[in-house]
Amino acid sequence: MSPSVWFSHQRLASIVILLAVFMTNLDLWIVNVALPAIGSSFASSSGTAATLSSLSWVLNAYAIALAALLVVAGRLGDRMGQRPVFLAGVTVFTLASLACALAPDLGTLVAARALQAVGAAAQLPTSLALLLASVPAEHRTRATRNWAAVGGLAAAAGPVAGGLLVQVDWRWVFVINLPIGIATVAAGLRVLPSTARREKGRLPDLTGAVLITLAIAALSGALVQAPDWGWLDTRSLALFALALAGAAAFVRRSLRHSHPLFELPLLRLPQFGAASAGTFAFGIAFAIMLLSNVLWCQDIWHWSALRTGVAMVPGPALVPVVTLLTARSAQRRGHGPLVATGGLLFAAAMLWRSCFASLDADYWRDLLPSLVLGGVGVGLTLGTLVAAGVSSLPGHRAATGSALVNSVRQMSATVGVALLVAIVGTHVGPAQRQDFRAAWVVAAALSIATAVVGVRLTRSSTRTRSATAPAEAPAAAPLAEPR
């Protein structure tokens, strides 16, 4: 094969992988924007309004399944090879998108969304490994940055794309995945590299995956149904008890199993445990912000999905820019200061909304300042927390730790959506203005807790440098003089 042909194969393989990653990242943003239209569609066909509690499962079914299966799918890639698992994931995601587009009722849509998550779980962990195998060693750093940047690009394009597609029909939010998925599989069969099978051991504990899924689903169900049933209703209490029992059984099994789904002892490492706690708290606040803004614009201000999508752009568009501009600062000053600053800025964004939110649409005073503050806060915090946790682990545990942190992010998204429903209630309208304000205050409190985590990370990093300084000082001092 000539060098030019090899180069074209490399480039095409990279494009195929990044296109698939873009598709799954885009899904988060466009489905959020489409949620009110989905509710209206099923309300008109059934004659009864789709409540926010039932609509929340369109988001949560995806997040719960993804959280439970990321580690299993990643390990499957190691055992069977990244290429077949990646292509299978894209195929499942594409077929599930078709099922979402054709869903005749809300229950079918929720089931299809869970199937989408199965495909995403197979695709996401394998995509980076395939991308790195598709480029020369000297280009791997750039490839990793491109892989990460795709999420930011999807975040910036998603709200507008979702708004445009909903103008036609909300089902096009899922139809758009079909040509991307088909093209990815067709091209991927020809150009994706075959990677070695790196592991022959047992799969992670599948019973553990069932237990954690049951626990999160029961907790979400309790939070979203309790406003209707009553917090002390037997059914609500039973779901809370089931969530607690499932979580306890999962922790016990994980600590005793030879191949646990999550290596929970990693959480005992101070920096990794703190970063994981910060990721969970901030993930809840982020989910509250994302869905509440969409609901406020469409159900309170009565904006169209397109106008809502365009209005949302400044926030997510700032995230990749801030992440890129602060990368060197994280290397020089450590992760803690960025996390602390980002948490405080995001808290300010939520408090701004709580103070200035008006029933009369006022984008420039109410929403835009909050989006700017929040976008900068997310850019400083979200990726930095993941990096802080993973970088604190031994090299042979980095992949395991990364999978755990990403699963924590999905769990926090589920809890955030369910918590918003619990605070706002099942029907959204002007009467819920104070409830929205309460939700934003809760998000602000969680963001402040994240800032506290940042302070702890800063102190931990300072202690680590102080402990190693005496041994390093004699060699470092002469080098520091000329600078």
Give the DSSP E fraction (strand runs of 2 or more residues).
under 5%
Structural class: mainly alpha
Order of helices and strands: HHHHHHHHHHHHHHHHH
Spatial shape: globular
Helicity range of the residues? over 70%
Number of strands: 0
Distance between the termini: 49 Å
Radius of gyration: 23 Å
Low-confidence residue ranges? 1-6, 468-483
Q: What is the averaged pLDDT score?
A: 83
Q: What is this structure's SSE topology?
A:
Elements: H1 3-46, H2 52-80, H3 82-102, H4 106-133, H5 140-168, H6 172-175, H7 177-191, H8 206-229, H9 234-256, H10 270-300, H11 305-312, H12 314-325, H13 327-333, H14 335-356, H15 363-391, H16 398-424, H17 433-480
Helix pairs in contact: 1-2, 1-4, 1-5, 1-7, 1-10, 2-3, 2-4, 2-8, 2-16, 3-4, 3-7, 5-11, 5-12, 8-9, 8-16, 10-11, 10-15, 10-16, 10-17, 12-15, 13-14, 14-15, 14-17, 15-16, 16-17
Record keyword descriptors for this entry.
83% helix, globular, mainly alpha, disordered C terminus, single chain, 483 residues
Describe the model.
By secondary structure, this protein is mostly helical. The protein is built from 17 helices and no strands. Helix 2 (52-80) runs antiparallel to helix 3 (82-102), helix 3 (82-102) runs antiparallel to helix 7 (177-191) and helix 8 (206-229) runs parallel beside helix 16 (398-424). The chain is globular. It starts with a helix and ends with a helix.
